[in-house]
Specification:
about 260 residues, Rossmann fold, five-stranded parallel β-sheet, 9 helices, about 20% strand, globular, phosphatase activity, metal ion binding, hydrolase
Length: about 260
Amino acid sequence: MSTDDRTPADIECWLTDMDGVLVHENKAIPGAAELIERWVSTSKRFLVLTNNSIYTPRDLCARLEAAGLVIPEENIWTSAMATAEFLRRQSPGGKAFVIGEAGLTTALHDAGFILTDRNPDFVVLGETRTYSFEAITRAIRLISQGARFITTNPDATGPSPEGVMPATGAVAALISQATERQPYVVGKPNPMMFRSALNRIQAHSETTAMIGDRMDTDIVAGMEAGLYTVLVHSGITQPEDIERFPFRPDTVFPSVAELLPRL
């Protein structure tokens, strides 16, 4: 079958973004629970992807369950996990200085890395609720001394109850300005995250789809990885926004509730 002829019914494996597709403000989006139940009951291989590197899969399982979604740990793939997998391939048993929380440090430990501020191979920047100026200064010095600069995701801002707050991309820009070194960014929209997810569930791009709510991350990365792309309007990108982009998703639905009957 030509990839141009694919439909949702032809898809064997699914990747889906989390925020804006399955949940919004810690509440399940209508149709999300039913979609997960359908995948589980029909033994479909699937992964929930997120650029959030703060939480471990177990943490995210608990947060999703509180929102009404039952998703096993093994079906969650974070930018922290993708970063750890990338670095494991780059430098098995390497050393890293990390700015981040449990999601990132746990993933790197599991990948066999030593976390240290003494002559690390990498400086790895992820999401954290409280960026330390002391830690950022240490990162700048280590990168200037030769450590390679890696970030989990490019997002410049993140949400908080009080409004937006600086996120990984903003802090990375500060470090880049001070060191004149640009980081390698593993998370969406880098197709690297999608390829590592495909390896995780032993899926092929020709028979896998990506569901996302953002044209500039989910859809472009899915397209570049060769996946069938599904845009839903339950998050960031709205119908009037699509014309601003020089590419198109394979199909568009208001939400996953409208996708469900097509499977």
